[in-house]
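Researcher: Structure prediction, please.
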Amino acid sequence: MLRMMLLSGIGDPYDPVKITGSLGRGATMGTPGAKVRTATGTFTDIGANTYNVGNAFSGGYAMLDLADDNFDHKGQNFIGGAYVTFGNNPGSGASNFGAYAGSPLPSMIGTSFKASLKDRFLPTKTVLSIGPNGMWPPTTDWFVDLDPHYTDIYGDPEPRLTLDWGINMVNCANYLAPMYADILTKMGASNVSVSDLVNTESHTATWPAHMRGGARLGTDPATSVFNKWQQCWKCENLFAAGEACDPTGDNTTTGGTHPVGPTSYVAADGIRKYLTSPGMLA
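Model: Predicted structure follows.
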């Protein structure tokens, strides 16, 4: 969406030197990835099943007690907080039996084969590590623009993303890791430990594909692209909704993917109002 708007001349492209313009301004990542302080503990007799039938966040839930402003961190050197997920499937994606047996047919059938798999996916212990990455508040030097060097097959400039891991998430993890270590202890974990403090920003050339912001919504056309109805300030008949409209860089379920559905309804309602009475909506 950002690239289409930039190529179409809709909106004011962000200038990171003058710090003017709104289109492309305030890009963030919703996925953690910086090296941060962690809390680790060992759980025994867990009875988990790591059979390869699912992965990601299947069956899990998120703990938000130490996210956003749900806890007191007044006077600390970071804003926001960090959530963690629990109860996820300990296995991985589905595979075939050949990956389990380690030997070719015909040994992959029968009683002996079944015996070789018995309790293979029933571990007696697991090590749980919690790395509480904080939120990514947008800064004036993170943005999206059109690349001056690279083009697509039609000769149009490709989008260029300029951002890096911020110190906010590192500072947040330094503060929260001991608190999560205490939670692990109260959960019954043994060998609970906290890694060393991380004192610098982390830099990496590998990026998770979960960009947010760049076409933020807001009340000021100078710093936002869309109003509360998801209506473009510079093109009144253009409505949009998505993570590009995220204004905060939040890393919890209150930002990013989850609000896309509700904001789509807001955009649809705005379109209805616009069709009834064209113009900028109040």
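Model: The chain has a mean pLDDT of 83.
Researcher: Thanks, that helps.
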